[in-house]
Amino acid sequence: MLKVDGLVKYYRKTLAVDGISFTVNDGEIVGLVGPNGAGKTTVLRCVTGIVQMTQGRIEVDGVDLEINEEAVKRLIAFVPEVPSPYEMLTVYEHLRFIAMAYKTLGNFDERAYELMQRFDLYDRRNDFVLSLSKGMKQKLAIACAFVHDARAILLDEPLIGIDPKGAKELKNMILDTKQRKGSVLISTHMLDTAEHLCDRIIIIQKGTIIAEGTLEELHQSAKMGRDASLEDVFLSLTEESKVIEATSVS
Amino acid sequence: MKPLLYLEYRQTINSIKNTLRSPKRLIPALFVAAFAFAWIMQTVLLLANAPRPGQFGWKTLGATVHIESLVHSGAFLLLSFGTAVFIFQAFSTGSLIFSIPHIDFLFPTPISRRSVLLMKLLRDYVKYTLWIAGAAIFIGAPVMQTLGGSLYPYGLVSIAALVAYLLFVINVTHTLNIIFTFSFERFKQLGIAIKILLILAIASSVVVGTWHFASTGSADFSLRDAADSPVIKTVFAPADWCSSLILSPVTALNAQKIRFDKLLLLWVLAFVSFMALLSRKENIYEPSLGVSVKVARMKQAMRSGDATALRVQTLQEKGARRAKLLFFPQFGQGATALLWKNLLVRYRMSWGQLLLIAFLPPALVIAIQRLVVWEELLQNLPFILVYMAFLLSITVQPQVRAELKHANILKAMPISAWNVVFVQVMSGTIYLALGTAAFAGSMWLFVPATRTSLLLACTIGSIFLGFACISATVIPALLYPDTRDQAQNVFCNLLGVSLVAVALVPTVVLGVILGILLRFSAIVVVIPVCVINAILGFAGIGVSGAIFRRFDPSGD
């Protein structure tokens, strides 16, 4: 279970995340959606320990990030947006390096074989990463996230630039993680993917949560009918939030 | 540490394999290696044949003592100013730079930040040591040979001192940057105090030096006085120790004692600052994010040799959003509109260069007019325009290659290939003509001796010559468009310079035959020169047009 409580993040004087709290339960897939600059990537970077939160508490399976960062990182896997893998490693070496970093070399070869097969990387296993296309690099990044058995998987726009087969495999792996009672947090702009894949959606804007819940609950928040898509709900809620903000300012 | 060592090892081995497997990487690498080997061998021979300190004594001891003192002052000021810049930047920009793959794949792993930092620092330290040692061997050995001394063994002291000082400054910069990223508000007063101290130290030195120069007019002694200012001497004491140790081979030559205690102190400072940096508990990843992305983009642009990409990067960093300065009205349709776009973009991207075009010519011409006393030489000054046309035409090539990155847009336009190339050549020629006219105008204004028909002939002739040369440089740009490929960059430059040299031949031949041998007037000579260059220019455009017609935009 991933628990974020009262997360605040300042970059020097700029407020990027303003007191966000949410939980991703075991066996749950949660979508983090919001317009550009809403603070989605900052939330993911705080959870993965890449940036230091200014205030708040982050826990994965009850382990506090501030107290035992390395243990928390061992429980997490992260797929960055538009990843840049190490170009001078081969595909196999890249996966091996990640396995070494997470100290999961035990059954690495079988795991690597399975992942490379699933993401069409097996034939390219001895090729340098620099020779891969953008889509293949994205697949490699996703494969890296599944090298170790993470309890929480964080994906930042994972479906950008990936082919339909890769996208299908990724969705299957996310569903596998859900079945294994892992927690999945997906930050995305692809609202229909979030609508079909996620159990719950969190909509953030300017560093705060403006709505949270299942699609039905979001329909209620936006005062829209059940036929409304997540896109309609999202646009309605984010516009409404802008109007409220403008009114309070004036 | 094991995964990090694995990463370093595999990347190094794979880089070597990648170079060996690809001829286009291997050939430039062999060239560089052969050059370095030749230089090192030369240096070794210099070292072997050089007299040992004290072997012959020094014939003009007074002269070297003076040089030593001057170099010491210069090196001290350079180190102090450099250190101040480094430390100043630590307050605003990140100083720890990681690669993007590190950010994406290493930072989220459970490898401890301290291990990542340690590995990064060790890697950097090795890199800096090699740079300094390389510079000492490549520059120091010939200098010492000239002075009749040897770089060995006291050159090692210089290297050790400079490495220790650099490590100390870098460690302090990183530490300050980490502290002020996370405790910006808490230590605000301390930050201001440090900045004031640095400014005071530098200002005191500048004031003392300037005052001394104003009152005595002696540059040597002003430099020494600037370096001897007690404030800068105190604030940058380690820089002072380092600068005196850098000159150890010369110090030994002058039979003076080398201060090994200062060397020890520098290494103590380097070690203590290293431990202080490693002991920081803050998240070192955060301050490195922004600067690492920025540096990665800059490196990519530099590696590709793309001046336009570099300029775009700089504008992005400055947060440029809207066009500034003069309004540039739109004109034309089709190819003419493309010419307008090219002129506008060049103006916006390089208005610094345009300012240079405006101010450099009068400044240069005034300097020449003051320094050159021979009237005959001044009369022939307009010939410099021909040389300028040759030089400026070479600078057009990178701009054409940058433009080819948008070849898919250009090719999709309803403009003929010939016209597209013609526009590229013309936009370069228009700027070259502006530069030539500015130079010619400056000559006419400030050097009365140039007010002859030669000036007019050279101005017109240079513009036509520039047109021919630019047209020649476009051909290799189209043949080797990929700026990311080093081999293509080398071939493109070589072929470009060669073709420009070829384009220059008819002008030189006609000039010599008609102007010198047959003694025709300058105006008469320039007419066939313009005609031949126009023919050459259009011929080049014809060839380039044919290449562009078959150009594959997906190739780059």
Beta-strand percent range of chain A: 15-25%
- In CATH, the homologous superfamily of chain A goes by the name P-loop containing nucleotide triphosphate hydrolases
Number of strands of chain A: 10
> Tally of extended strands of chain B?
0
Molecular structure report:
The complex is a heterodimer of chains A (250) and B (556). Chain A has a single domain (2-84, 152-249), classed as Rossmann fold, CATH 3.40.50. Chain A has helices at residues 40-47, 69-75, 91-101, 108-118, 134-145, 164-179, 191-197, 215-221, 230-249, and strands spanning 2-11, 14-24, 28-33, 55-60, 63-64, 76-79, 152-156, 183-187, 200-205, 208-213. Chain A has a six-stranded mixed beta sheet, with helices on both faces. In chain A, strands 2-1-4-5 form a four-stranded antiparallel beta sheet, covered by helices on one side. Chain A is globular and about 60 Å long. In chain A, 40% of the residues lie in helices and 24% in strands. The mean pLDDT of chain A is 86. With 556 residues, chain B is mostly helical. At the A-B interface, helix 2, strand 6 and helix 3 of A face helix 1, helix 4 and helix 13 of B.
